[in-house]
From TrEMBL:
It is found in: Cell membrane. InterPro entries: MetI-like, MetI-like_sf. One of its GO terms (cellular component) is plasma membrane. Residues 87-278 form the ABC transmembrane type-1 domain. This is ABC transporter permease subunit. Pfam families: BPD_transp_1. It comes from Candidatus Borkfalkia avistercoris. The keyword Transmembrane applies. It is a multi-pass membrane protein. The chain crosses the membrane at residues 21-40, 91-113, 125-149, 155-177, 198-220, 257-278. Keywords: Cell membrane, Membrane, Transmembrane, Transmembrane helix, Transport.
Length: 293
């Protein structure tokens, strides 16, 4: 108890507070500076970018936006996937690989938290073991198995196989549902609710903030993932994969760094919109308790 009290006094000390504030402000300024610099540099031509790296452009090259739209494409088997197709594939991949795994983690975590059994202990142990045991060199065998069962280069079918509890997200949902009082379940049972109604009408709304926060983080991770499209779904090139190829382009129209930065700005816009709409869910407090009286 004395150690906890001492730790609280240290954390409440003005020096600690101002030090933490200064570190966070420095980090924020660094991130904002990089974003503003990228936006300004994306509106320069190549020669001005080389001569005036940090200054404002003398001529604002808004035409770079049109050039990025026209030249950001991925050739696959003789077909050019333009920016619209890349965005569509990114949305499909991010949506499927967010909804299916997150829902699987929610269901299994809820069952392990509210229905105690030896099977739940086994599931938790397997999830933790998968996190701590490094799986090195499994790409070749994974590709062989994927081609054998038909999930290679088949985005919808491969997404179904993601319906498994995995990683830290399972543990987050497990802690969330464990922190929700069983009194809510008991009250719903008294009102005649079954297991499905309790889960969908009682538990999911109580865990809504956590679900939204985890879902957004997973969606952003999938949106920025270019390796999966390159290795597992070559016929479904995503916007992130297009940007990856874009940086190695040697064509005169796309080798310009300002044009590449403009392409990155385009890829950022959907994520910025999502963060603007759901920022309160990401930083909001999650309060749980039981039923009073």
């Amino acid at each position: 108890m004395a150690k906890i009290r001492k730790r609280e006094l240290i954390n409440d000390h003005p020096v600690m507070k101002w030090t933490g504030f200064a570190i966070l402000m420095l980090y924020t300024v660094t991130i904002l500076f990089a974003l503003v610099w990228a936006l300004i540099s994306a509106l320069k031509d190549f020669y001005e970018f080389r001569k005036n790296l940090f200054g404002l452009p003398q001529t604002w090259m808004f035409s770079n936006l049109k050039l990025a739209f026209e030249n950001l494409f991925v050739p696959v088997e003789g077909r050019e996937y333009t920016l619209i197709y890349l965005i569509g594939n990114s949305l499909a991949y991010a949506f499927l690989y967010t909804v299916i795994p997150v829902f699987a983690n929610i269901i299994v975590a809820y069952g392990c938290a509210k229905y105690k059994s030896k099977l739940c202990d086994i599931v938790k142990a397997v999830v933790i073991l998968r996190m701590v045991i490094p799986i090195v060199g499994g790409l070749a065998s994974g590709l062989t198995v994927s081609k054998f069962i038909g999930t290679y280069d088949n985005l919808p079918l491969a997404a179904i196989f993601q319906f498994t509890p995995q990683g830290a997200h399972f543990l987050i949902f497990l802690a969330t549902f464990s922190g929700i009082s069983n009194e809510y379940m008991d009250a719903a049972k008294i009102d005649g609710a079954g297991h499905a109604k309790i889960f969908f009408s009682v538990m999911l709304p109580l865990a809504r903030n956590t679900i939204i926060a985890v879902g957004i983080m997973v969606f952003i991770g999938c949106w920025n993932d270019w390796e999966t499209a390159m290795v597992w779904f070559p016929s479904y090139p995503t916007l992130a994969y297009g940007l990856y190829r874009f940086q190695f382009s040697t064509a005169n129209a796309t080798a310009s760094i300002p044009l590449q930065l403009m392409a990155c700005i385009i890829a950022m816009i959907p994520m910025l919109i999502i963060l603007m709409f759901f920022k309160d869910k990401l930083v909001g407090n999650i309060s749980m308790g039981g039923i009073k009286g």
